[in-house]
Amino acid sequence: MTVARWLRLPGKGLAMLHMTRGALGSRERAWSLVPTLLGTPRALSSLAEKMGVYRKMWNPTEPRDWAQQYRERFIPFSKEQLLRLLIQEFHSSPAEKTALEQFSAHADFCTVLHYHHLLARLQALYDPINPDRETLDQPSLTDPQRLSNEQDVLRALEPLLAQANFSALSEDTLAYALVVHHPQDEVQVTVNLDQYIYMQFWALGQRVGQMPHMSSVGSKRGFFTKPPPAERRYFKRVVLAARTRQGRLVLKSFKDTPLEGLEQLLPELKVRTPAMQRAMLNLMLLVSGLMFFVNVGMVVLSDLKMATSLLLLLFAAFMGVRASKVFGQWRSAQALELAHMLYYRSTSNNSELLSALALRAQNEHTKEVLLARSFLARRPGGVQGPPEEISSWLQSEVESWLLTQSGCEVTFNGSRALAHLQALTPSLGLFPPSKLPRLDPLAPGPAEASQVASGGRPPAA
């Protein structure tokens, strides 16, 4: 059937042509959404260029300008630990202790309602693309719909991660992690950037020291295991958001992850054998093969009158099979070690990660207002003065105190803590409060964005 005759059919050919063009156009629009999924463009071609820069460096030990790239914002105390420290240092009298405990209970009450509401909105955004949904199956989403939903979820996650005091790892840091392999990492992997649409990491709790040992599958086995170094840079928590071209959005959280081991958390990995280990395995095979050839091959050659060329051919085939088996067993052992390591490091996935982030953001929120209340109570003049001056003083004092108490350099957000404290203070002593303090909301979802565009107002947080 020719094209002209097909188009002459009563409306069918033209309709199918419009459907085809519409499908192609929607697919192109879907891929155009990819650069804006994380708020800031993350072109993997730029990441590949930065990886090339690190490959040319001689033994880099950390990303360039690491002190400026990463700022620790996580308060390294639990809420109970922080409350005890504040009472011991600033609220020693019974009346002050009771007042601080009442304020802490009030902050918990207000923030738990707020973050429960934010979590419900975030779960509603994530539900259509949740791979672990236990309810009845819904109609499958098209590529534009799935990419649009992933965009909404990632945008809504950004303020929650910021309140949870996670720091986004830069593209330069990711390039360093994909190129540099630490001697302590017995398992090494390769990542093909062409398989990914985007990848983003957030981290908190930077530590420098000997990492806790997670797996015992193959770490003490083998002849070439090196003793672990005394100190290493790692993070207490890492959040990953990545999508492969043939997959879907992956949300995962891990603990005790080294900086050079971030690539081990990505999906679609291939275990690789390091050059030194390949050389040692090949040397072992060569030595054992020569010994076998000298002790057995020469006897066969002299007794059975076998041609030298045939004997060498059989020997080469035997060595090839033996090498393939040895390297296969080695890769299987490394893959098992990687699986066990990720099993011990993984903390939450997909929808469960959203709940864990909401809880962590609530805890960090409460810790910040406790610090703000305690330090502002001892400031000359209290909260009188320009807000910028108050927040700057609060940030400086809290950072110095946290450094003294924990030994960790923490960047404290004084303006955010002051705003949260001011939002909670008017309703102090009211259970429940007459009006829930308005805290920082998440980015509006699609339905709320349409309401704002049409002149309406989204529901208050």
TrEMBL record:
<feature type="region of interest" description="Disordered">
    <location>
        <begin position="435"/>
        <end position="461"/>
    </location>
</feature>
<keyword id="KW-0597">Phosphoprotein</keyword>
<keyword id="KW-0812">Transmembrane</keyword>
<keyword id="KW-1133">Transmembrane helix</keyword>
<keyword id="KW-0472">Membrane</keyword>
<feature type="transmembrane region" description="Helical">
    <location>
        <begin position="306"/>
        <end position="324"/>
    </location>
</feature>
<dbReference type="Pfam" id="PF12576">
    <property type="entry name" value="DUF3754"/>
</dbReference>
<dbReference type="InterPro" id="IPR022227">
    <property type="entry name" value="DUF3754"/>
</dbReference>
<feature type="transmembrane region" description="Helical">
    <location>
        <begin position="279"/>
        <end position="300"/>
    </location>
</feature>
<protein>
    <submittedName>
        <fullName>Transmembrane protein 143</fullName>
    </submittedName>
</protein>
<dbReference type="GO" id="GO:0005739">
    <property type="term" value="C:mitochondrion"/>
</dbReference>
